[in-house]
Amino acid sequence: MAKLVVKQVRSKINCPLTQKRGLEALGLRKMGQTVEHDSNPAILGMINKVKHLVSVEEVK
């Protein structure tokens, strides 16, 4: 299973509540923070919801 490195690159100010909760569910609390997750449908759905706020890289 592939790993994904997710980094928050834009602020969550003025975002809808669902997107703020999506960032927190991913483990991102502040700008520039990086987290690593397994690639599964649930994580990919959360990333898709906030794709304009994060950058994603695949790690092998």
From TrEMBL:
Q: Which UniProt keywords apply?
A: Ribonucleoprotein, Ribosomal protein
Q: Transmembrane segments in this chain: where? A: none
This protein's name = Large ribosomal subunit protein uL30
- Large ribosomal subunit protein uL30-like ferredoxin-like fold domain: which residues? 5-54
Classification via PANTHER family: LARGE RIBOSOMAL SUBUNIT PROTEIN UL30M, MITOCHONDRIAL RIBOSOMAL PROTEIN L30
Can you list the GO cellular component terms from the UniProt entry?
Answer: ribosome
What does the record note on quaternary structure? Part of the 50S ribosomal subunit.
Q: Which NCBIfam families match?
A: rpmD_bact
| Keyword Transferase in record | no
User: Which InterPro entries does the entry link to?
Assistant: Ribo_uL30_ferredoxin-like_sf, Ribosomal_uL30_bac-type, Ribosomal_uL30_ferredoxin-like
The answer to whether UniProt assigns keyword Phosphoprotein to this entry is: no
The family this protein is said to belong to: Belongs to the universal ribosomal protein uL30 family.
